[in-house]
Amino acid sequence: MNNIHQSGRQTTAPGFNIYNQPPDYYDATLSPEYIEQCFMPIRRLIDSLRKPEGVSILDLCCGTGVIPDLIRDLGGVSYLGLDLNPTFLDRARERMAGNEHFTFVEADLLKHQFDRRFDIVMMINGYHHFENHLKSQVVKRVHEMLAPEGSFILYEMCISTYENRDEFAHMVLDFYEKRIEWTRKNEPMTPKKLATWKNVRDLSVAGEDEYKVDYDYIRKDFHANGFALKQEIRVWPPENEDLFDDPRVGDFLFLFE
Ligand SMILES: C[S@@+](CC[C@H](N)C(=O)[O-])C[C@H]1O[C@@H](n2cnc3c(N)ncnc32)[C@H](O)[C@@H]1O
User: Any idea where the domains of the chain sit in the sequence?
Assistant: First the structure.
């Protein structure tokens, strides 16, 4: 793994990757403050899409099950979470134990065949886990999994526009420097949380497991693959905080149909 930044600064231990670690590392970033700021809007969006006859939800790249936990009390939900990390799925199943309407499957989303379609498909911080040459394939697969009148919810961290590899690295570093600084100011910082944010930053710069893109890339990819944007919310940074000059930088919640 190349975990040395342009600056030559080595910030996370060689070979350390939070996705190969117990789920506590990943979960360290999903603090109550983060969930309130960034993930509660997902719950509200799902709530607004519910129908009296019930709603089927497919959560692609569901990870450790934080999102199902957030919607466990919404009535009429039948939920299936998919992820390829067995230890993350163990944590998700543990969280949702006893909730028969919440099930999980261990699978690669690019390979798994479903025998049904879903009213809502969502992918929360999952799109950036696919290398850029695979992203359109992911979007096409989402289309196949969605019921005819279905909705797709996408959550993505959008970095600033870049022209080349050096600029890309610079934009990723800028995004995470600000994110870490903001988190320090707004949440209790723990060593594990700091190590995890830094590791995600380093994996993103190195292009290992994390393949971030900018806002325009996402909009174009979904448009080219037949999706229309119905709604978008920039959930981070908060509205009144100008961390970035470009309003297209930050965490976005998109609703596509
Ligand atoms: C950043 S985590 C997001 C987890 C969860 N959605 C959340 O927001 O808390 C990304 C997840 O994508 C999963 N993932 C990556 N590639 C995948 C693939 N090809 N098929 C299924 N899951 C995948 C990883 O295992 C990881 O759990």
Answer: 27-119+131-154+207-256
Q: Are 153 and 71 in contact (CB under 8 A)?
A: no
Q: Domain 27-119+131-154+207-256 class?
A: alpha beta
3-class SS of residue 141: helix
* 126 CA to centre of ligand 1 in angstroms: 5
Cis check for the bond before 237: say yes or no (omega within 30 of 0). Answer: yes
How much is the pLDDT for 13? 61
Q: What is the pLDDT of residue 12?
A: 63
Ligand 1 center to 108 CA (angstroms): 10
What is the reported pLDDT for 159?
97
For residues 45 and 57, give the distance between their C-alpha atoms in angstroms, rounded to a whole number: 13
Low-confidence ranges of the chain (pLDDT < 50): 1-10
Strand 102-106 and strand 77-83: the pairing is parallel
Q: What is the pLDDT of residue 16?
A: 86
Probe residue for ligand 1, chosen from 26, 79, 83, 211 as the CB with the greatest number of ligand atoms within 8 Å: 83
Residue 124 Cβ inside 6 Å of ligand 1? The answer reads: yes
The verdict on the CB of residue 62 being under 6 Å from ligand 1 is: yes
With a 6 Å cutoff on the Cβ, whether 233 touches ligand 1 is no
Q: How far is the CA of 103 from the centre of ligand 1 (A)?
A: 16
Token look-up 């970095």 returns 159
218 CB within 6 A, ligand 1: no
